[in-house]
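Following up on my earlier message about pyridoxal-5'-phosphate. Here are the inputs again, as you asked, copied directly from the submission form:
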Amino acid sequence: MSQTKILLDESEIPTHWYNVVADMPNPPAPPLGPDGNPIGPDALAAIFPPGLIEQEVSAERWIEIPEEVREIYQLWRPSPLYRAHRLEAALGTPAKIYYKHEGVSPAGSHKPNTAVAQAYYNKQVGIKRLATETGAGQWGSSLALVGKMFGIEVRVYMVKVSYEQKPFRRSMMHTWGAEVFASPSEQTESGRKILAEDPDSPGSLGIAISEAVEEAASRKDTNYALGSVLNHVLLHQTVIGQEAKKQFEIVGDYPDMVFASCGGGSNFGGAAFPFFADKAAGKEVRLVAVEPASCPTLTRGHYAYDFGDAVGHTPLMKMYTLGHDFVPPGIHAGGLRYHGDSALVSQLYNEGLIEAMAVHQLGTFEAGVQFAQTEGIIPAPESSHAIRACIDEALKCKETGEAKTLFFNLSGHGHFDMASYDKYFSGELVDYEYPAEAIDKALHHLPKVAMA
Ligand SMILES: *Cc1c(COP(=O)(O)O)cnc(C)c1O
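Thanks, got it. Here's what our run produced:
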């Protein structure tokens, strides 16, 4: 009987994070200030601690993981790599399918991997409070979880539509001791401004980021924490891909293709970048970011300088973007709604070194249900994007008879997303393609400096 769970000992938790910048053929496009000139690391000092700023701009290949962070990782890492025997059998594919299960963390997703590190570096410099945003609640709950571990107060601006539709993520954050506000809120200038224009605004990640950044910038004891997009966040997530590589070694296999769902890019970067190191060294491996057709940032967005938030508080980052004022269609149930994408992921995609594809929501839920009914684990709707893409590739293999090795990151479980599953079962969900006019329109809202 061939192995189903491929496990590592706690002593094999990676000792270093892997920085993909060291293997990129070109240096990353620098973030720009409001005047259109590259910003220095100091520009970030109002809201981030020095340890994270160093990582944000580092080109070192390996960055040591502090002992205290590794000790907390021991609560759920190394995460298991599974061979999806039962899914393979159901598909009748000659392909071998593997997935890494990041849903084993206390918050149920990959996000605590960076939350621990971010809290650690903030604690080091005496920060007492962290402000952040959350969409569906995975990031907010991950930061809430580690806030308690480091004695840091956590304040979460939660996108209003999720705040109302996902009460149990809110309860999780409360259980771990965080404060949660529906965004746009009356707590900040940014929130008040948006509410004045649109009292019924459902909120967006971009708006919630504006609120959290404003709060962090205006208080000395408070910093900001972001759950995706930034270089240091992707860096922290590379424990996923590094462990996976060791686990593949144990079974003497190696993926032909790596799939990961992509919102802001940390899940993709975390799973795929350690394999990119091999690709940069000449190995053949295809790395595929999977996004929703209703928020098709990489596949249909503009590659340009844009703000990371809705109001324009952040530096400009060169990335694929649907425009910083993008408000995702309310009809979309599966997360991954950020208007932009990691600058690193964007640049690698622009240079043709990684791939991206968009999938529709009905097919995504169908794949999630098929996975749950074969492998048992109910996947987060975000993760189901990667499952959809992986199943489609496995079905292609069935046609061609190729026995490819396919790997996807199961970024989280879906236990708090059952309302979305119910909507799928009751036929309330439909496929929705983000309209081309909206994408064209966004081009006119890009900051002027982007055109320089
Ligand atoms: C946040 C999240 C994602 C998307 O991660 P990004 O790093 O923003 O691309 C995927 N899956 C789950 C379960 C998540 O919580």
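One observation from looking it over: The pocket of pyridoxal-5'-phosphate is lined by residues 109, 111, 138, 228, 261-268, 336, 380, 382-383, 411-412 (CB under 6 Å). Hope that helps, and feel free to reply on this thread.
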